[in-house]
Every structure is written in structure tokens, then in C-alpha cells.
Amino acid sequence: MPRQQGNRTAEATATLPSLPPFGRAALMLDLDGTLLDFAPTPDAVVVRPGLPDALLRLRRRLGGALAIVSGRPVEQVDALLPGVATAVAGEHGAALRLAPDGPILRPDLPEPPLAWLDTAERLAEAHPGVLLERKRRGFVLHFRRAPAAGTALHDALAALLAGNERRFELMPAELAWEIRPIGVDKGAALRALLAVPPFAGRTPIYVGDDVTDRDAIAAAIAAGGVGLLVGDWFAGPAGVRAWLAALAQAPDAPLGS
Q1: Where along the chain do its domains lie?
Q2: N or C: which end of the chain has fewer CB within 10 A?
Q3: CB neighbours of 151 closer than 8 A, spacing ≥ 6?
Q4: 114-181: CATH class
Q5: 13-107+184-249: which CATH topology?
Q6: pLDDT tens digit string along 24-79?
Q7: What is the pTM for the complete model shown?
Q8: Is 6 helix (H, G, I), strand (E, B) or coil?
Q9: Which of 204, 210, 246, 255 is nearest to 30 (CA)?
């Protein structure tokens, strides 16, 4: 039966829905806000001790079916967690690395005009503390260090997008606004992963924290799996990390037991 995500906070894994056994499960995890605590800038995040080891243990127990699904580029995910995930979906699915040594695959999607990037640079310069993050298929303006700029950035980017709504969209993130091409979302990334080994034929478990993760949560549930929103089920990334560490040491039984 598909599992619905909860509508409450939880600190203990006992509150989680029952999960499939290791031999039938595929674990797919968001990165920032799920595995890693947010930091003032994307390059200031810290990988907590014990997290890579726990993920590697889980990867082995899952027959390799462990993936990171992130808004970051694949290269950044691999730099933060080198050699950990079998597969990485980066840029919300605009880039896919399906095997540890495999190429990065990119769907045929539009790239933002250079004039948009020039405008984004000027917006960042006009609002001290705002950071521009460039991606292959889009860009992000982070305003964690300038929260008062959020509305002005949204309005400027929405105006930039006018007339191009069939090709690009403006997405909210955690104290950030992102422009990305239409047709890219983490739900599509999850479905792409489920179509290839070692994920094919397994029951997906997806954990994420943000509005961009809701597509993957819905896709996991539609595939008969489990979708967990961090704010509903865990006490932040620390709670997720504790849960993963416990799973990595658990007997070979249903993951939620």
C-alpha cells in the first residue's frame, strides 16, 4: 500500500510508517536540509562525522540502491560525499549520474539566456549578502544572509520570466529563488532512477525537506513507496542522520522496525 507523508513532527523513528525490507527497498535522499544542516552559503555546509559511513553501510545493505537527489550540481554532491551514492540526480533532475563511474547525463532542456544571468549578477550586487549560484540549466539567488531582499528578488525574477513561462519557472527554496527549465523536477528524477538497476523493481523511500522535494515524495508514493518530509517526521537533519545511523546498524528486517 502507498504510504502517506505525515502531518506532525517526530523525533523518534518509532513514529515512522512501516518500511520495506532492505532486500526490496531503494533509498533516495535529498541533501541540503535533509542530510546536511543549512549554512549561510552553499559552500559552507559541513558533512557531519559518521554520515558517509552510515550511508555506505546502507548502500551495501540495499544492494547499491542508494541515491542522492539534490538541487546541487552532481559534481558538488560527489565532492561533499565522495564515493558514497550509487547514483546522483543533480539540479533537480537536470543532470543524472546513474552509476559511480558513469557519465553525467543531461536531458535536452533549454539554458537561461546570458542576459538573465547578467541581471541576476546585478541583483546580487544590489543586495549585499545575496549570493548567485550558477547551474548548467538555470541559476539560484540565495538570500539567507539578506532575508529582507526576498520579495524584491522574487519580483525582479518574475518580471524577467514574463513571456517565457512555457520554458522556465521560478521556484522557491529555503531562503532562495531558483529559475529552472520546465520539465525538471525531483519526481521525474526519482522515476528515472527507478527505471535502471539497482533501483528497478524496488520500493522507493524518499526523504526531503523542501517544496522541491514534494514532487519526489508524490512520485515515491505513486510507485507504492514511502515519502517523508523532514519537518513532518524528523527533528531536522540531525534527526535524519540519527535515523540513518540506526538503520545502518539494524538487523536485516523491515527498515521501519
Answers
A1: 13-107+184-249, 114-181
A2: N
A3: none
A4: alpha beta
A5: Rossmann fold (3.40.50)
A6: 999 999 999 999 999 988 889 999 999 999 999 999 999 999 999 999 999 999 99
A7: 0.83
A8: coil
A9: 210
